[in-house]
Design brief:
Helix 16 packs antiparallel against helix 20 and helix 21 crosses helix 22. This protein is 73% helix and 1% strand. The chain is built from 23 helices and two strands. The termini are far apart. It is an all-alpha fold. It has a two-stranded antiparallel sheet.
């Protein structure tokens, strides 16, 4: 895959040396929040198939031929239980903007953990379906807040030469959470009491405790501190992230860049959600819509169909021991995210998104075609389906999985970053909710259902083709640029020409404060000439 020259430019502290690992370690730790996200979304797939959970929250039936347990989960309840988390996360993502601007990025993440723990507690002790669903909503609020705040914190605090890999670590943590959920579900599924699903759910207290405790020791985002006028605190936070002295010239250069970019935005007035869609030389509207749609397209790849309904789908496809197949697909998801974390800084964001969309499109059409032409008793065909699904997951994990979060974290200017990111992440969860709610009706058989089964992959294949077109026209190459240099990229290029202009920015080592200084100097010279 082609990519521009490797970024050898400076880190967050203007010229922070690559050997400094303190800032990388601190911002990488924040990615642990992805485990909350991944585990909570992944555990429900297995829980709704557990015997005791079905006896507790399912519906009794006399059709023991189809449902040997004597209980089943109607499509309406399955949709509600699985998708209601996404409803909570949608609102949690929107609340992420005021939380980030008022509490700060770091304290906002810690507060999110408390909200999440309330939801876990309600689910663990739920005596009925209503309480379980309310618990899913509160857990969703916490996950939604985390999914907005953590990529924002990481993007604002990590060195630019490795920012893509650091933010990709968030997606890697999500995949680890999904794998842990599959492994623990597989370990507890045969228990015939409440502990079968209560163990799987209550383990989430551990993930929240680790994240909240660790964030207490991390510095606040220097960009948020500058926005709040806390310049000394910003210099101190930046010095911790770069292992440089607060008075170091490189720290001051970075702070000047942040101030210059913020001043330009603030000259337009206070930001509101409407300002995220205004037309300007900074292409704010394009950037906001790009963030919203890249998160929507990520969901429309169909990946969460596998992780939400994978166990059910593999069972219906005639595959034996679907729990183990789910574990296998999650292992692929975890380990194939690692090449993506490397590739995002080697090949760039744009090229990986294009290649990933193409690979997923091919795999999903093949799954659909093979699935409709073989019988459930065709062992070779079933193995081919599993292999293609694993290749598709590998394509997602190394491209669209992590890079959608990277793009969302770095394309917005500081003055609207919290609001625009919250809208983007809310878009992710809105589509997540829609797909999670509609899928049982699309896939299941019986009255009121479409009964598509494996044919649903024709839909996912078509949407992956849409991902490719969207990326080509809307997503620029931002590899190796500071968040402030991304502003210059949008002002002076288009997504199609961005690779060439990005190379110029890196070669000339242009900074916002340099460009603003030249512009203001020319303006002063012009005024002096006019007066003479």
């Amino acid at each position: 895959m082609p990519g521009g020259p490797a970024a050898t430019g400076p880190g967050i502290g203007a010229s922070a040396p690559k050997s400094k690992v303190a800032g990388i370690a601190m911002t990488a730790f924040a990615a642990f929040g992805g485990i909350l996200f991944g585990y909570d979304t992944g555990t429900i797939s297995g829980i709704i198939q557990m015997d005791d959970w079905l006896r507790t929250f399912g519906v009794a039936t006399t059709d023991t031929t189809t449902y040997p347990l004597g209980y089943y989960l109607p499509s309406s309840r399955e949709s509600l239980v699985v998708s209601i988390l996404s409803a909570g996360t949608f609102f949690g993502a929107l609340f992420g903007a005021p939380a980030a601007d008022i509490l700060g990025r770091r304290l906002g993440i810690m507060a999110s953990c408390l909200v999440f723990c309330l939801g876990v507690a309600l689910q663990t002790g739920a005596p009925d379906l209503a309480t379980f669903v309310v618990g899913r909503v509160f857990a969703g609020l916490g996950v939604g807040l985390v999914s907005t705040l953590i990529p924002m914190y990481q993007s604002e605090c990590s060195p630019k030469w490795i920012r893509g890999a650091v933010v990709s670590g968030y997606q890697w943590a999500i995949t680890i959470g999904l794998l842990l959920a599959a492994v623990i579900n597989n370990a507890t599924k045969d228990r015939q009491n409440h502990s079968a699903w209560q163990i799987s759910i209550s383990i989430q207290f551990i993930w929240a405790f680790i994240l909240c405790s660790g964030m207490a020791y991390l510095p606040e985002s220097p960009r948020w501190l500058i926005k709040k006028g806390k310049d000394k605190a910003a210099a101190k936070a930046l010095s911790r992230l770069t292992s440089l002295d607060p008075q170091d010239p490189e720290v001051e250069t970075e702070l000047n860049d942040i101030r210059a970019a913020l001043k330009e935005e603030q000259e337009l007035g206070e930001s509101s959600y409407l300002d995220c869609f205004r037309s300007s030389h900074n292409k704010i509207c394009l950037r906001t819509l790009s963030g919203i749609f890249i998160q929507a397209w990520q969901q429309l790849t169909g990946i969460n169909f596998i992780f939400y309904y994978g166990t059910t789908f593999f069972t219906n496809a005639g595959i034996k021991n679907p729990f183990l197949i789910t574990v296998a697909t999650n292992i692929v998801n975890v380990f194939m995210t690692l090449p993506g974390m490397w590739g995002v800084e080697r090949f760039g964001r744009r090229s990986l998104l294009l290649w990933g969309a193409a690979l997923m499109c091919i795999c999903e059409f093949l799954v659909a075609i093979i699935g409709v032409t073989i019988s459930v008793n065709n062992t070779a065909g079933q193995k081919a389906l599993i292999a293609l699904v694993c290749i598709y997951i590998a394509g997602f994990a190394s491209t669209w999985g992590p890079i959608a979060w990277v793009i969302t974290g770095e394309i917005f200017p500081l003055n609207i970053r919290a609001k625009a990111m919250s809208l983007s992440v809310a878009s992710n969860w809105l589509w997540n909710f829609g797909i999670g709610y509609a899928t049982p009706y699309l896939v299941n058989t019986g009255p009121g259902n479409a009964g598509l089964g494996v044919k649903v992959f024709f839909i996912w294949g078509a949407t992956c083709a849409g991902c490719l077109v969207f990326t080509y026209f809307c997503i620029p190459e931002t590899k190796g640029l500071s968040l402030e240099q991304v502003d210059l990229l949008y002002q002076n290029s288009t997504p199609i020409t961005s690779t060439r202009y990005r190379q110029e920015l890196i070669a000339q080592d242009l900074h916002v404060s340099d460009v603003k200084g030249v512009s203001e100097a020319r303006h002063d010279d012009k005024e002096s000439t006019e007066k003479v």
